[in-house]
Known about the structure:
With 271 residues, the protein is α/β, with parallel strands linked by helices. Helices cover 42% and strands 12% of the residues.
Amino acid sequence: MRLKGKQALITGSSRGIGRGIALKLAQEGATIAVHYYQNHEAAADTLARIRELGSDGIIVQADVSLVDDIRRMFAEVRDTFGSLDIFVGSARSELATFYEPPLDLTLDKWAMAFDSQARAFLVAIQEAAPIMPDGGRILAITFAPGGCSGSWQPWIAMGSAKAALESAVRYFAVALAPRGITVNAISPGLTEDSVLNSLPEEAVQLARAWHRRWTPMGRLGTPADAGNAAALLCSEEAAWITGQVIAADGGASLMDTVLPLEMQLSQPVVI
């Protein structure tokens, strides 16, 4: 149990990737502050599963797009835990609040994406750092492809916000390095039980079918995959890794978007 005695706050941990991370860190011995925005029942279910793993925790509520809510959440964690060893920023706003193509994108949807990602991460670290002992761990959950391509057009607001988030990771990694606090991001790629499932079922099935071919591992990721990556980066052994965006995507980001898949696979087309 590499994280026994550690205390962690994971935003968005009532569901999806955040829940997968919460359960893995709990399995490794950490006490978890489970965050939710609207679905208390889902947060309570996550906490129940954490207790089944032999750990414990609390439930905190906040809208991470609101600065005052973030500060209140950290005050609750401070009052309960006293200190915080691990912070993971995994919360996101609902798809409808930001999902719109570039030429139709409204400023409120652009603002929501940035407020719930880059700004939320900025405020959260400023709140976490004073109560985090030296050697702490900070993680952000990103989606790196959305920040370096333009093909998923309605993703423009979130893709841009995630790119800003990844940049902030590097700046905070430098700022907190003297205290031995690492700051990294995990890019899980398309994942089951995530924002993907907010899309119509036809789109979800298309994504699954595509990744069976596109991803070298032959499948979409899972919240447990993200949890395993987070546990590694939160361990003592990861003390020398900071300011990095770690792709935990089954090799999907290794594939070339220019060449046809048939020319990239293990049995290429004979020319």
